[in-house]
Amino acid sequence: MGDPSPVCAASAIILPVAVAEPLVSGWRMRHDASAAAGVPAHVTVIAPFLAPERVTADVLAELRALFSARPAPQVRFTRSGRFPATGDAPGVLYLDPEPADGLRALTETVVGRWPEAPPYGGIHGQIVPHLTVAIAGEATLDRLQHELDGALGAGFGATLTDAVLYIRAGDRWRARASLPLGAPGA
Question: Which domains, from first to last, does the chain contain?
Fold first, then answer.
């Protein structure tokens, strides 16, 4: 959930992946500032979303209706992936959820309703659902990916039953609202 300014207010919607915590929490605490700021292991639905003052009771009601109408994604994490460093931005090591189509469709649904909030501020050309493990330089990511792949083994599955709206103010992210998804589906 990359917000470059630690004092900037923002919001984001994530799908927490509690089952991933034992595997990734150590790496995330050392190499992903969002973990130290209070964000659990997750797949991002949309970040940034709306400015906190725009997240009204009406917006929350719309979000709850939108999420409850969508099936809870059932995914497996069996492999890691990387986004390479670009310019001044470090690279990203992540777990790759499969299938990703339902996750991508969830993001597209939110963007369809709030087009003023494109994923990652519109800086990436496509939506690539992922669970960030580390943000670092390439040499560090090479080492961490080797460790992660060894620890991942055959991988694990998860049913993502709840999205959570987080609000950032100062250097902390805080859960603002739970957004339950419908019955599990593909």
Answer: 10-173 (3.90.1140.10)
